[in-house]
Each structure stands twice: as C-alpha cells, then as structure tokens.
Amino acid sequence: MPEEPSAEPKPSAPGEKEEEEDDYMSMAIVEPTKPVEKETYTQRRIRKQREAELKNPKSKAQLAAEAAAARDAALSTSIPQSSKGFKMLSKLGFQEGSALGAKNNLNGRLEPIGVEVRDNRGGIGLDSEKKRKFREETEHEAKRVKAEEGDFRERVAREREQERLERQVNAAMRVAERMEEEGGEGGTGNKTEGGADEEDGHKGVAAGLAPVVAEKEGLSAEMPVKAVSSTKKPLRQVNILWRDLVRERERKEKERRMRYDLMQSLSRNANYTDPEDDAQEKQAFGTEEEDVEEDDPELDEFNALEPVEKLRKLIEHLRERYNYCFWCKYRYEDEKMEGCPGFTEDDHD
Fold first, then answer.
1. CA–CA distance from 108 to each of 98, 112, 254, 278 (Å)?
2. pLDDT tens digits for 94-130?
3. How far is CA 221 from the centre of its chain?
4. Which of 105, 163, 274, 341 could form a disulfide with 101 if both were Cys (CB 3.0 to 4.6 A apart)?
5. What are phi and psi of 100, to 5 degrees?
6. Rounded CA gap, 12 and 285, in Å?
7. Are strands 324-325 and 330-331 parallel, antiparallel or unpaired?
C-alpha cells in the first residue's frame, strides 16, 4: 500500500533562515537596545548619596550653614595666579602683596573689602541704629534695677524701724501698766473706796477658790494660782495709753480657755448653770457669760497714730506722773530728774 504523507513540518536544513513576517500595521517604535554597562565605584557612591539626600532632605538651617561656610571659604582664598583676572592685573604692573593704584600709594588697601551678607531688607545704617537703641534700653534697665534695689533697701529699713518702734511702744505700755498697778510713790493707786478690809475680803474669797481653779486647769496644788479679782476694771476705764495691751491680753486668755475646754474632758457639764454659784465660782468654772467686745472709737483713734507719736505720749506720761525715764530705766526722786540726759533716745546715746 502506498504511505500517507505526514502532516508534521519538515525541519529546515541547517543554514537556512526562517522567514518572519513583518507586522506592518503596528504603531510601536522599537528603540534600539543599548548594551548594559557596568557601574563604577564613583557612580555607585554618587547614586547612593543622591538617594540618601532624597530620603532625608536637609533643613533650611543646614543649607544656610553650608552656604555660609562655602562663602567664607571662597572669600578667604586669594585669587589664583592662573585666573584671567590675575593675569590682566599682572600685565598692568600689579604684584602680589602690593596695594592697588600708583606705586607711591603706600597706604593703599592690601586686602579687598569684606563682604557682609544682609539677610533682611533694612538700610545700611539700620544696624547702628538698632545697636544705639539696644544700648539705651540696656542703660535704662540698669538704672531701673539700681533704683529698685535702692527702694527695696529703704523699704526694708523703714519696716525694721517700724518693728523696733512697735517693740518699744509695747515695752513702754507694760511699764506704765505696772506702775499704775503699783500706785507709785505719791501717785494714785487702783484701790476702791472700801479700803483695805474690802480688798482683803476679795483676796480671801479668791484664795478659797484657788483649789477649784487648780483642779479645773489641771494644775498642782503647790503651783501658785493667780487670784481672780471681782473688782476687774472695765476695759473702757483703762488708760488709753495701754488699753490695747490689756485688750490683747484678755483676748489671748479667752482663746486659751476655749482651747482648754475643747481639749479637756470636764467633770461638770458646761451647759449646766448652778443658780447658787456666785461670780467667782462662775468665772472659775467658765460658766460666766463673757461680754461681747464692743467698738472703741477712742482706742481706734489712738492705734491709728504712728508708733513714734504713741511712744512719745507714753514717755511723757511716765516722766510727768512717775518721774520715770524710759531710756534710763530709772525712777528719779523729784520732777527735775537730775542726771537724765534728755527726753529722746538720741539724747541717751
């Protein structure tokens, strides 16, 4: 039987080129391919540097600092002899290290004028004006600080002087009160019209209440207890010169008694009032109703005075009434007060 022809293409003979059909309908322009060149070390370093700069861009401050450094480096370098400018100057007779101009110009400039870069839009004389204003403001501030230091020293000195005078006023008040209580020689005391019998009677009642006061205050029987006098002078009848001292003492005593009543447990109910208790017992047990402090215009007027004026009145009272010199700390026998240097403190220096 005859063999059937095979459908497989026959392999082309070696050396025979295959014919390729050109796609004449295509619009693509094929660029000629360049051979791949090997990257050198310098190219690779520059490429990496550019990539790093793109990832981490420099700030304006860094760029300005680099520009300033480059400018300073360029200005600090002299013109090289290979430059055209130097060659032109050499042809005109210029020598390196000499001044420009005529040969006899010995005082000529040897270095070029320095370049000063201005970052603002101000005029040429603006910097000197700013420096002048800044200098004036600095001088004014220094004067102000110096004046404030002087005012501070003066204020502190005045405050210390006021405190010293206040201490002297309080000391004079205590001396005047003590002399008023003692009565003084030839002076008038605080005795009542009843005489010594009435006063002894009050002392006896106060002495009988002393154990009660001691038990209430938590004191021992051996400790002395100040007798409570029923003839306590009203505050308005105290001399105006030391009335403030007495009022302050009474206020502190009231506060002390209130603190004691709050801290200690009393055996007797504070709200209970025995009708048989007399004035001394009520005051000893703390059941006496305290008088409400009233306004004292006379005392307010006296306290409004300067410490110097209050001290002057107190010293005058001690000298006229008791012949006592507050500065000498001595009581003289007569009104002449022989041996006392004078009335003021400066006289006793």
1. 8, 11, 97, 117
2. 888 787 777 777 777 777 777 777 777 777 777 788 8
3. 54
4. 105
5. -75, 155
6. 143
7. antiparallel
